[in-house]
Recover the amino acids of this structure.
């Protein structure tokens, strides 16, 4: 009985700790949609449109020329096929979306961070 109580308490504490980073479904859907839009703009080489989604720091840090370089690397994966897996987590004041995308030759995982104004504050491709 004592072990059951300890196990129950451990599970409750674990769930409480995880609960802080949960994102409700409507927020998650919104950030997933914005992430897919940014990835699509990258795939279509619409860099100026993509940069409109950036916060000021990202605009200063990532130029059109640098986005072109990222796009060239992604192109090595072949033609875009589909989005596969997606998730959103909350990290402090940011929402972080992870989107797996399938290309004809390879797969890519995008990690896109959004600030509290729903602007892109980080963009990474693996």
């Amino acid at each position: 009985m004592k072990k059951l109580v300890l196990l129950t308490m451990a599970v409750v504490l674990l769930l409480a700790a995880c609960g802080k980073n949960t994102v409700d479904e409507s927020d998650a859907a919104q950030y997933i949609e914005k992430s897919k839009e940014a990835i699509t703009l990258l795939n279509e080489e619409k860099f100026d449109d993509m940069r409109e989604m950036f916060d000021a720091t990202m605009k200063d840090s990532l130029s059109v020329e640098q986005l072109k370089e990222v796009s060239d690397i992604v192109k090595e994966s072949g033609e875009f096929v589909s989005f596969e897996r997606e998730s959103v987590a909350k990290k402090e004041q940011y929402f972080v979306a992870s989107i797996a995308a399938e290309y004809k030759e390879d797969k890519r995982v995008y990690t896109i961070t959004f600030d509290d104004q729903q602007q892109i504050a980080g963009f990474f491709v693996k």
Observations:
- The beta strands are 80-91, 94-103, 107-114, 120-125.
- The radius of gyration is 18 Å.
